[in-house]
Inverse folding.
């Protein structure tokens, strides 16, 4: 997972050639830590077809505000420069898999 900032969001996420799952998080957020291993597993399983990134909302409030992220963890799936799915809160792996299935061709 790579870090995204307010300054790099446009290029790293909106202009990406592949779908990007952007995890909005903060270091003090316990549920964010619970979601991270799930996203890392999915990243290794979808390598090359989906990118996974993190945005620290404390250091990058503009992007969080732009997408009305009021609760963390929030993961937004971007594809073609658009937000396609939003998952708010710590969710089971199956929720993330369902969101990814919407943009990934069957493997």
């Amino acid at each position: 997972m790579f870090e995204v900032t307010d300054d790099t969001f446009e290029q790293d996420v909106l202009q990406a050639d592949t779908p990007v799952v952007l995890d909005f998080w903060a270091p003090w957020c316990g549920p964010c830590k619970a979601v991270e291993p799930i996203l890392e597993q999915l990243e290794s399983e979808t390598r090359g077809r989906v990118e996974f990134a993190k945005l620290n909302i404390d250091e990058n409030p503009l992007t969080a505000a732009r997408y009305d992220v009021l609760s963390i963890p929030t993961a937004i799936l971007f594809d073609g420069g658009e937000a396609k799915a939003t998952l708010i809160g710590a969710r089971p792996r199956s929720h993330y898999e369902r969101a990814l299935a919407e943009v990934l061709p069957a493997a």
